[in-house]
Design brief:
326 residues; globular; single chain; 4-stranded antiparallel β-sheet
Length: 326
C-alpha cells in the first residue's frame, strides 16, 4: 500500500469514525449506561449490517451497547480496527486476508455465505467490451483498494479467460468515487460489489461477469479485533452478537419485502436496487470449519501468486472458532 493511500485511508477512518452512528438494543435505548456496561463498536460497510440488524429487531434486549462505525469499503474499516476505533469487522474473504497480511490484529470469528452474485465486473452499456477476454490492454477500476473481493473476481475471471493479471491496467478507487466516475462515463470497466454494482446495473450498465460459478469463494467474515477478544466483556458481547446476526439472516430470508424497504430507507437505494441487494446479500452465517478455511486458503494462495497478497496468510491460523457454532 502506498504512503498516499495509507494517508487517504487514515483520513477516511477518522472522518467516518467521528460520524459513526450509535444505537443500542431494546429497552436500554434511552437509559443511561452504567460505568461497567460494555460498549461494542461494530464495524460496517455502507450500512449493510446495521440495516439488517435493525430491520430484523434482533438487537432488542442486548446487555451491552452497540455503537456503529460505518465505512464505504473494507479498507478504511480495517484501518479503524487497526487504530482501535472498531471492535469488529464485516467484509468479504480477500479484504479480511489483505488486512491480516498487512498486520491488522483481527481474526475471523464467523463466516458469511452467499452465491457470489453480489460481486461483478460492469461496463458502460455501449462499451466495446462484451466478455472478459475483451478487457486485454484496457484499464479496469477496482473498488475499494488493493486486495478487495472485486479484485479477486477480476484475477480469477482473467485466468479463466486465458489472460494474465498483467494483461489489464488496474486502478483502485473507493466505491463512491468510482460510482461517480462511472456514472459520468469516465470509467469503462469497473470491478465492484454490493449496492454500488446494483445501482449502476439499474441505471443501464452491463455486467460481463459475476462471482457465481465458483469465481469467488462466496465467503465473507465477521472479524473481531484481538484487543476485543482479550476483553472478557467484549468477547462475550461479540459471541452474543453473532447469534443475533444468525437470527437476522434467517429473518431476511422470510421477510424479503420488509428487508428491501429498510434498505431503501437507510441507504436511499431505489426499490429495484434494494430488491436486487436482498437477493444477492449474504444468506447465512456459518461456523468457520476446515471446509471454509480450505476454500478461503485457495483465494489467499491465488492472490499471493500474483503478488496482490504479500505475505500470504495461513487462514486456519487467522480465525477463532470458539465464538460461533451451529
Amino acid at each position: 500500500m502506498t504512503r498516499g493511500l495509507r494517508a487517504l485511508l487514515a483520513s477516511l477512518t477518522l472522518a467516518a469514525t467521528a460520524f459513526a452512528a450509535t444505537g443500542c438494543g431494546g429497552d436500554a435505548a434511552g437509559a443511561a449506561s452504567s460505568s461497567t456496561e460494555v460498549t461494542l463498536t461494530v464495524g460496517d460497510q455502507a450500512k449493510s449490517l446495521q440495516t439488517l440488524l435493525n430491520a430484523s429487531g434482533v438487537l432488542k434486549g442486548t446487555s451491552y451497547k452497540v455503537k456503529w462505525a460505518e465505512f464505504e469499503g473494507a479498507a478504511p474499516l480495517f484501518q479503524a480496527v487497526q487504530a482501535g476505533a472498531a471492535d469488529t469487522s464485516y467484509a468479504a474473504d480477500l479484504p479480511t486476508l489483505q488486512a491480516q497480511s498487512g498486520g491488522v490484529p483481527v481474526k475471523g470469528v464467523a463466516a458469511l455465505h452467499n452465491d457470489g452474485s453480489s460481486v461483478g465486473i460492469v461496463v458502460q452499456k455501449n462499451s466495446s467490451v462484451k466478455k472478459v477476454s475483451d478487457l486485454k490492454g484496457k484499464k479496469v477500476v477496482v473498488s475499494s483498494a488493493r486486495g478487495s473481493i472485486a479484485e479477486y473476481l477480476l484475477a480469477n475471471a482473467l485466468q479463466q479467460a486465458g489472460l494474465k493479471y498483467s494483461d489489464v491496467h488496474v486502478q483502485y478507487l473507493l466505491p463512491t468515487d468510482a460510482q461517480a466516475a462511472f456514472t459520468a462515463g469516465k470509467i469503462d470497466a469497473w470491478a465492484t460489489f454490493g449496492v454500488y454494482k446494483a445501482a449502476v446495473v439499474d441505471q443501464g450498465a452491463r455486467q460481463i461477469v459475476d462471482g457465481t460459478g465458483g469465481r469467488v469463494s462466496g465467503y465473507g467474515f465477521i472479524g473481531a479485533a484481538d484487543k476485543a477478544l482479550a476483553d472478557t466483556g467484549k468477547k462475550a458481547a461479540i459471541k452474543d452478537l453473532l447469534q443475533r446476526v444468525d437470527k437476522a439472516l434467517t429473518w431476511s430470508g422470510t421477510h424479503q419485502d420488509e428487508y428491501a424497504k429498510a434498505i431503501e430507507k437507510n441507504t436511499g437505494a431505489k426499490a429495484a436496487v434494494a430488491q436486487l441487494i436482498v437477493k444477492q446479500s449474504y444468506g447465512e452465517l456459518v461456523p468457520i470449519t476446515p471446509a471454509v478455511t480450505k476454500a478461503v486458503q485457495s483465494v489467499a494462495d491465488t492472490m499471493h501468486g500474483i503478488k496482490v497478497l504479500d505475505p500470504d496468510v495461513v487462514v486456519a491460523d487467522s480465525v477463532d472458532t470458539s465464538l460461533f457454532a451451529k
